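[step 3/7] fold_predict: job queued, chain A
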Amino acid sequence: MAGHSKWANIQHRKGRQDKLRSKLFSKLSKEITVAAKMGDPDPDKNPRLRLAVKEAKASSMPKDVIERAIKKSQGGDADTYEEIRYEGYGPGGVAVIVEAMTDNRNRTASTVRSTFSKYGGNLGETGSVGFMFDRKGEVVYPASAGDADTVMMAAIEAGAEDVQSDEESHVIFCADTDLNEVATALEETLGESLSTKLIWKPNIATEVDGEGLTKLMKLLDTLEEDDDVQRVTANFEASDEVMAAFAEAE
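[step 4/7] structure written:
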């Protein structure tokens, strides 16, 4: 999952997540409200809500904000959101999936389409790039959770499919339908995770050079900043030299 994880690392190093914290809380609150409205407002009886709350806590969202988002789902004035997935190509032919949650389909489609066009990409039909990704569950632990072998054994016992470990973290992958069970089992062995969520994991990677990466990041950042967009995933990868040069230029 080179592109996705390297992009996440860039965001972490450059502090983009801090800059987008208020937007992040808004997106997480929206997911909590929708999950609670679609199922039971009790996280223990609603797997999607449990994962949404877990992700919110991992992002340091205050408990009262989480509870307010759940309560909002039970009110008659709760917004009605529609989940939509957009697919397209960014600069250099990089495949991009945009997951949105909106109360105005036309507004969101128009904004996403114009953003792709503005930054050298083009929006395609649903399914145009989806085959380059697999829907997976992802659980992330800090490197301090244990050595690679320990985490690998815990992941296998929990029913996970794969683990990628480096000096910063352990990223555990599982079938999308198994995420709740795998995350619960891992929590009993390794403790609280840094992140637990459903992702689109690239199965085909597109190499980008320095100029291509710069253009692509402008597209991805602009999409991420949109209030209707929940997540953006791209299948790019770049050499360590290109990644280092980009980080230095930021």
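[step 5/7] annotate
Residues 92 and 212 are 6 Å apart (CA to CA).
The longest strand covers residues 133-142.
exit 0
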